[in-house]
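Input record (one chain):
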Amino acid sequence: MGIVEYAEEKQKKYQNQLYDVTSNKEYDAITHEIEVQKKEIDEGQNRIIELELSKEENENSLKEYKEELEELDKELKEKEKELKNLLMTTEQKELELNQMREKIVVRLDKPILKKYERIRSAKNGIAVVPIERDACGGCFKTIPPQNIVEVEKLNKLHQCEVCGRILVPENELDKLPI
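The corresponding structure, as predicted from the sequence alone:
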């Protein structure tokens, strides 16, 4: 039994008692109680209306959120497909590059390979950098012009004096099959 129904029952009870009144005081007390019950009924009905409106708003919001969720799910699935395609492409490219690397590693001298691997592990996988605008492509320290000329000759390995990476001319890096 809800609050409104309970208040309506009390109001009926007081209205029935109104006929059995013997004094003005009793009549005033009962009419006051009837008014209190009317107020409770009105407040209860207003609260019910508010709750129903709130329920409708919540249902509408729920529908909107469900639609948004469905859209986001579709977008997520599309992005997952794109990611899978990119991963497949990347894995294929990585495989090709690893095969190419294996062919090159076989032809390298062991001391050079050892030096390259040591630098690569120390410098987050970047052991060879180009000379860009007369500076090291790794640490951006300016390289003296004489050293740039020696690097461009490509007759021996040259390392950056600051970061230790192997230097190559910028135009030679473009020729690499990466």
